[in-house]
Design brief:
Shape: globular
Distance between the termini: 106 Å
Largest sheet: 7 strands, mixed
Oligomer: single chain
Helix content: 40-55%
Number of helices: 12
Number of strands: 17
Length: about 350
């Protein structure tokens, strides 16, 4: 009998087939393991982001009715299929009035201590933070002319929104009241900020009375920065310099927040959200998810491409009834409104030399 017929040796080529089969199993398990890790990482990220969203939503206060009746409001500014975003930022000094009164539209003695409009054009190439002097003399719908911060007292948040919309002809998408005390904890949460002090001064109060702020870059903790943004009495132009200093602080904070050691650090980022959220009162549509969507749409915008300036004015003066007021430059305000409508704010900034503020 032929020995080859009784041989127990595997046919030629069998070991190679087994090796290929083994390699395929290894490759398959490697792929499965990798896919599992990706899924777990994605799940962890989802849980983490979900935690941030939940923290924001649960800790912020909500304004149930922040906007006036839709009839007569400006339409959203669209260029192509993109839409501009406008967020009204309000710092208020509550003089015995409850937040609920201002939110509901009930007249109260609450005032808007500082006003800023954060405008992001439809193309998302730049962002603009426009300070509005609180004593700016403007028409307040249904109440004649008055200081713009009086709108909050006359008719709460809806009337304040309506007033700003009537001046700048832009639809306000969101409203956020910010208690500056919240920035103290936020500043400390990111390890302080470096602020380039433009005008040297000595603090007259705000927890830092007698402290000197020299001109130049100064590293500030929360309490020091809070006193910096609230001071106005040492300056020749008072409130004008204060709003400049507030913008300088915000830009310094933005610069710090986008640093990898903050943005990519889960512990620090969680601390930032937890620190600021309790000091925010926002319209009910400004959810944590919406904030995330807005942040994602503005991913290419940096502090260097964020232009900050004050709504142009013609200086101070007196109203007919003897109030000290800030006179609005109506011609430039109208030009700005038109630029915002057309998406050409950068041209307005260049024409009026506002790249570095005013």
């Amino acid at each position: 009998m032929n020995d080859s017929m009784n041989s127990t040796e595997p046919p030629a080529g069998a070991p190679a087939k087994k090796e290929r089969s083994r390699r395929k199993r290894v490759a398959l398990w490697t792929l499965v393991s990798f896919a599992t890790l990706v899924v777990l990482a994605g799940l962890a990220a989802f849980i983490y982001v979900g935690g941030l969203i939940n923290s924001f939503d649960s800790k912020t206060n909500k304004i149930p009715s922040a906007f006036p009746d839709d009839a007569g409001r400006p339409a959203a500014t669209k260029i192509g299929d993109q839409t501009a975003t406008n967020i009204l930022l309000v710092g208020s000094d509550s003089r015995g009035a409850t937040t609920g009164q201002a939110e509901s539209g009930t007249p109260s003695d609450q005032r808007a201590d500082s006003l800023m409009l954060f405008h992001v054009p439809a193309d998302r190439k730049n962002a603009y933070l426009i300070s509005i002097m609180r004593d700016t003399w403007v028409p307040i719908p249904g109440h004649g002319e008055a200081k713009i911060n009086a709108a909050l007292a006359y008719g709460g948040v809806p009337l304040l929104v309506q007033t700003v919309e009537s001046v700048l002809k832009q639809r306000i998408d969101h409203v956020a009241f910010i208690n500056f005390d919240g920035f103290e904890g936020l500043t400390d949460a990111v390890g302080g900020v470096d602020i380039d002090v433009p005008v040297a001064f000595t603090s007259t109060g705000y927890g830092k009375k007698g402290m000197h702020y020299p001109k130049g870059v100064m590293h500030m903790d929360g309490a020091t920065a809070l006193a910096f943004v609230r001071e106005r009495y040492p300056f020749v132009d008072g409130d004008y310099q204060r709003v400049r200093d507030q913008r300088i602080f915000i830009k310094a904070l933005m610069t710090k927040l986008i640093k990898p050691e903050v943005l990519a650090n889960p512990g620090t980022l969680s601390s930032v959200v937890n620190q600021i959220s309790p000091y925010l009162t926002v319209d009910s549509s400004l959810t944590g998810q919406k904030v995330g969507e807005l942040a994602l749409s503005m991913k290419d915008i940096r502090p260097s491409t964020t232009v900050m300036f004050t709504l142009p004015t013609l200086g101070t003066g007196w109203s007919a009834d003897g109030q000290s007021i800030v006179n609005l430059d109506t011609a430039k305000a109208s030009a700005l409104a038109e630029a915002m409508r057309k998406g050409t704010v950068q041209d307005f900034v260049t024409a009026n030399n506002l790249k570095n503020g005013n």
